[in-house]
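agent> call fold_tool(seq_1)
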Amino acid sequence: MTSSKNLSFNGSSFVVGDLTWTLPGMAPSNSDCGTTLESDSFHSCDRIICSECYSRVHKKQAYHIYKHIDESSLDKSYFRHIIFSPPQEWVIDRMRTEGSFGYLRDKASEVMKEAGVVGAVLFFHPLRLTEFAREFYGELGLKPKDIWKKIGEGKIPFSEDTVKIGPHFHALATGYLVPSDKFEQETVWSYSNIGSLEYSLRNRIKYNLNHVGLALDGEGESIFNSYTYIGDLKRGGRK
């Protein structure tokens, strides 16, 4: 099993099997990103991995997700923030190739429907903060969301001292969940229900977007989008 101790870090990315992974805002920008156009607007490559364009793309994606949920037939007051955790050795193996990760995303959708999820937007998080990062930066007054943000901005080191492997999915979801013990017994996945989203949906979307895992192709571009709609929120195929 891969652990934080044998993750292969390469500056702003890490390697699992054949795939290189990174987080939003940690890839080099294009030479024209952020330049001023004749219309007095800024040129953006619209890539969430781009260090220059990340902030704009992050806000743009968060807005579109919120708008999609708001305009859906689902009642926002019933949405919950739920963390789904697959068996760790199994899920890390599914991060090794493009095909196996595609299977993992499909499996996650299937398993969450078994849990009772009717509709959701999913975010894949391959990493967790280390205890050191939580304690050290916590003493400086930083909450986990702030630590992740500063890691993306390069203000906190991206290394085995601050992050560790621990793949899981965050779902902003609606539905009637089966009991967690029954769900785990039947699927070997587990879930934690963080709570209602009626008054914090926008913030939870932003939080989950700021440290999604992004697999890269040979040219350093994202292979998969940063979020996925399932069930009654799905539109136009997989996002």
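agent> call fold_tool(seq_2)
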Amino acid sequence: MCNETRNFAERESGPTKNYSMENNKSEARPSPFSQTFFHGTKADLNIGDFIETGVSSNFGQNKKAKYIYLSATLDAAIWGAELALGEGRERIYLVEPTGPIEDDPNLTDKKFPGNPTMSYRSAHPFKIVGEIATWRGHAIEQVKAMKDGIERAKQLGIEAIED
């Protein structure tokens, strides 16, 4: 990863998130030949930290999560950050899985067969190796429509997370 800030904006609409990239050279560099993924959240974490299972899920009944989620696409991570519960700043971390990952069945089996969103889950921690400094979120109307849909599903008793 370069030491410079990069603009990873994918869309022309929506609010721009412009946060500083943290760079700790002793901990921020990905391991050689490791695939780096994205993880969107509102959690305030540091490079070198691990994202782990066992914390309250952002979706469904907010029970303790058995899996954590990551994506190879920035767009899916942006959705993760925008839809995450809490009042914290929306963040997108660059992460490396520490164990096996599998297709996210919430998307690949139900909404997008074949996993075009490149979304995955794991029962193993993800190591944070960086944070995206600049990215453009979805249009406010899109985020509202998505949150409204999640609320409707919740009212109908539809769980978003499969164990």
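agent> summarizing second result for user.
The helical segments are 25-28, 74-83, 105-108, 140-155. The first strand starts at residue 16 and ends at 18.
agent> awaiting next instruction.
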